[in-house]
Amino acid sequence: MKAHQWITLLLGTLIINLQALEVSEDDNTIKILDGTNALLVYHKSEVLPPKGSDPSYKRSAFIHPLKTPKGAIVTSIHPDDHLHHVGLWHAWVNTSHGTEKIDFWNLKKKEGTVRYKKTISLNQESDKKGFTVLQEHIATYEGKKPITIIEESFSVGIVKEKNTYFIDYVSEQKNVTSQDLELPAYRYGGPIAYRGPANWTNENSQVLTSENKNRSNGHATRGKWCAFSGPMDDGNALVAILCHPANHDAPQRMRIWPPSSHNGAIFFNYVPAQENAWKLTPKKMNKFSYKIIISDTKMDNKMIESAWLKYANE
Predict the structure, then answer these.
(1) The domain spanning residue 96 has which CATH number?
(2) What does the pLDDT look like over 145-199, one tens digit per residue?
(3) For residue 307, what are the CA distances in angstroms to 131, 167, 229?
(4) Cα separation of 280 and 177, whole Å?
(5) What is the three-class DSSP state of 11?
(6) Which of 72, 175, 208, 267 could form a disulfide with 257 if both were Cys (CB 3.0 to 4.6 A apart)?
(7) Cα–Cα distance between 253 and 29 in angstroms, integer?
């Protein structure tokens, strides 16, 4: 090999290494880094709501910020209209356990929450960088000792291809009690929820599902995927959430806010129990798998559909 060829190969290797994703953990967070871009931050410690708000809105076990390869933030937390919305997160809403009603989502009720318990592993070795943590879904009635209802292995794995992030978001939930956790049919709640950037409104952003539905007609429909796009300071951003066909009730029904809700703000939730009641029986593992696509582009339904077909056959 000639000297100039060796130098070119070495520089190319250095560039690849500099661009490699890394996982970093400290006492409060787990971060996935793309060079200097902290593209995903998972919160191990409870994050307090804005000053002056009800402290009941504090929560751990969520992701914010989530960023594009250029570093544009595509999540928001603690919006004035819904202080319990925290970027990318999940929880069940309308549940019952024996004689008790438990809402793990609406924190102000002080009935339940989801929290980080411990880190199981960090994945630094393969092309897919990520982590697995143990989370607890707990009943938190005032005056009573907290009770763990669900133990959850929650995993995130990320690869970067053609300047696009592909994120595997996997929740494995087990009811660790001796009674069913009943999930009556309800319009929202479940294994993945997303609140879009504060600057995305009905006027400047787009929502599109695999069945060509949008803000106006997408709620309570089924979709293999749902995508969101809008402007950023230096261009555009795209977020797509794909539902794996092996999930319960797939393709799952969706909660999509209509144009009239909060000036067209983006809120999305895949809801396995939206149409039909369901239950998490004791000791049975329930696995929910999703893939999230993040890029600095406008809506690209052909790319998303192609990615879903590949994902469905993995």
Answers:
(1) 2.70.98
(2) 999 999 999 999 999 999 999 999 999 999 999 999 999 999 999 999 999 999 9
(3) 22, 12, 17
(4) 10
(5) helix
(6) 267
(7) 32
Non-local CB neighbours of 54 within 8 Å, separated by 6+ positions: 83, 108
In the chain, helix, strand, coil percent, each to 5? 10, 45, 40
Give the tokens for residue 145. Answer: 């000792």
Q: Which two three-digit tokens encode residue 140?
A: 């938190």
- Residues 6+ away with beta carbon under 8 Å from 314: none
- Structural domain for 177, as ranges: 23-312
What DSSP string describes 58-97? Answer: -B-S-EEEEB-TT--B---BS-TT-TT-BSEEEE--SEEE
**Tens digit of pLDDT for each residue in 256-301?**
999 999 989 999 999 999 999 999 999 999 999 999 999 999 999 9
Query: Residue 7: inside a domain, yes or no?
Result: no
User: Is residue 12 in a domain?
Assistant: no
Q: How far is Cα 112 from Cα 13, in angstroms, rounded to an integer?
A: 49
Q: Is residue 168 part of a domain?
A: yes
Place of tokens 């970027």: 87
**Total tally of structural domains belonging to the chain:** 1
